[in-house]
Design a protein that fits this description.
It is a single chain. The protein is an alpha/beta fold and 330 residues long. It has 9 helices and 18 strands. The strands form 5 sheets. It has an 8-stranded mixed beta sheet, with helices on both faces. The chain has a 4-stranded parallel beta sheet with strand order 15-16-17-18, with helices on both faces. The longest helix has 14 residues.
C-alpha cells in the first residue's frame, strides 16, 4: 500500500467561523476525519506544519514546506500540501523551482469553502488530490482543484467564490479527474535520474510594476536601491509608451546597471511577444531584458527569485530563464 504525507498549512479548507470572520483553526487530522473514506485508499500520515491564512504565506514558509518534503522524501510515495487558495499559485510556482525533477507527486489543494460548510468543495478536492498522488504517472508539483490537475507553474486563481477557482493559464491541464478516473491528454515528461534536486538559495529582491496610463518612468529611479529584478506588466502583447524617450532611457539604464527586467503582459491570456509592435520591438533581444512568452506572473516571480539565488552572471541567468521547468515555457 502506498504512503502519502499530508502537510497541513491552514487556509479556507481548515477555517472555522470566528468573531472576526473565517480563521484557520482545524488541524490536518481533523480535516481527514471529515472525509474518513480517504483513509482506506492508502497509508496517510499528517504533519501540521503551520495553520495560517494563505494571505500570510511568505518565502520563509515556502522554505519550511520545501524542507519538510526534502526531509521525508525517501519515506513517502507522494505529498499533499493543504493550502489556502489566495496564494496557492505562488507557493506551487515556488516549489516548482525549489524542488525540481521530482519523480514523486507534490500536490497542492485547498477549497473555496471550509470543510465544515454544508456545500463545501473541500472533500472532493482532498479526495481527488489523494487519487492523483496515488497514480503511477503523477510527478512534480501540481495543483489539483475542481477536477483538474494543473502544472505548478501554470496555476492561477481566477475566481474568488466559484468552486472552479483555478485555471491552467496558456497551457492545457495535465489531467482531468472524473469520479475515480484520471484522464491525461499530454505525453508524460517523467524526470530521470538522479532525481529530486533541492534548491535552498533564494533572492527576494523582485518587484512587479503594472503599466498604466498614469505611470511615469520615475518609478525606476525610486525602486532602484531596493530591487535586483523588475517584472513589468506591459500593455497588450508587450507595449511600452514611446511618446517620449523617458521609459526607453529608464529601462536601458536599469539593465545597463546590471539589473534584470522581465517584460510580460497584464492581459491574462495569450502571452507577450515584443517583436510585434514598434512600442515593444526596441526591447526585444536586448541583454538583461527577458522575454516572458506565456509565463504566469506567479511563475515569473518565483523563477527570478530562484535564478538570482543561484547566480548573478547575466549569461547564466538568461540560460536558466529560458530553460523549461515544470512546463513553465513551451
Amino acid at each position: 500500500m502506498k504512503k502519502l504525507l499530508i502537510i497541513a498549512t491552514g487556509g479556507t479548507i481548515a477555517s472555522g467561523e470566528g468573531k472576526d470572520g473565517l480563521t484557520p483553526s482545524l488541524t490536518g487530522e481533523e480535516l481527514l476525519d471529515c472525509v474518513p473514506e480517504v483513509r482506506q485508499t492508502c497509508e496517510l500520515s499528517v504533519l501540521q506544519l503551520m495553520n495560517i491564512d494563505s494571505t500570510n504565506m511568505r518565502p520563509c514558509h515556502w522554505g519550511q514546506i520545501r524542507d519538510t518534503i526534502a526531509e521525508h522524501y525517501g519515506e513517502y510515495d507522494g505529498f499533499i500540501v493543504l493550502h489556502g487558495t489566495d496564494t496557492m499559485a505562488y507557493t506551487a510556482a515556488a516549489l516548482s523551482y525549489m524542488l525540481q525533477d521530482s519523480v514523486k507527486p507534490i500536490v497542492l489543494t485547498g477549497s473555496q469553502k471550509s470543510i465544515l460548510h454544508p456545500y463545501t468543495d473541500a472533500k472532493i478536492n482532498l479526495y481527488q488530490s489523494i487519487l492523483y498522488a496515488l497514480d503511477d504517472n503523477s510527478h512534480d508539483v501540481v495543483v489539483v482543484f475542481n477536477g483538474k490537475a494543473i502544472a505548478g507553474t501554470r496555476a492561477r486563481k481566477q475566481r474568488t467564490r466559484n468552486m472552479n477557482g483555478f485555471e491552467s493559464m496558456n497551457f492545457p491541464p495535465l489531467a482531468y479527474i472524473q469520479d475515480s478516473e484520471i484522464i491525461r491528454y499530454l505525453p508524460e515528461r517523467r524526470p530521470g535520474s538522479p532525481g529530486l534536486r533541492v534548491y535552498q538559495e533564494w533572492n527576494e529582491r523582485i518587484f512587479v510594476i503594472k503599466m498604466t496610463p498614469l505611470l511615469t518612468a520615475d518609478i525606476f529611479r525610486v525602486i532602484e536601491p531596493y530591487y535586483d529584478a523588475l517584472i513589468l506588466e506591459a500593455f497588450g502583447i508587450g507595449g511600452i509608451p514611446s511618446l517620449d524617450d523617458s521609459f526607453e532611457k529608464a529601462i536601458f539604464d536599469w539593465v545597463d546597471s546590471g539589473k534584470l527586467l522581465a517584460i510580460t503582459t497584464q492581459v491574462p491570456e495569450d502571452g507577450c511577444d515584443l517583436s510585434v509592435y514598434q512600442v515593444g520591438k526596441k526591447y526585444s533581444g536586448r541583454s538583461g531584458i527577458l522575454e516572458t512568452g506565456t509565463m504566469t506572473i506567479e511563475a515569473l516571480i518565483a523563477k527570478l527569485a530562484w535564478i538570482l539565488g543561484q547566480t548573478r552572471e547575466r549569461a547564466e541567468v538568461e540560460a536558466l530563464f529560458y530553460q523549461t521547468i515544470n512546463y513553465d515555457r513551451y
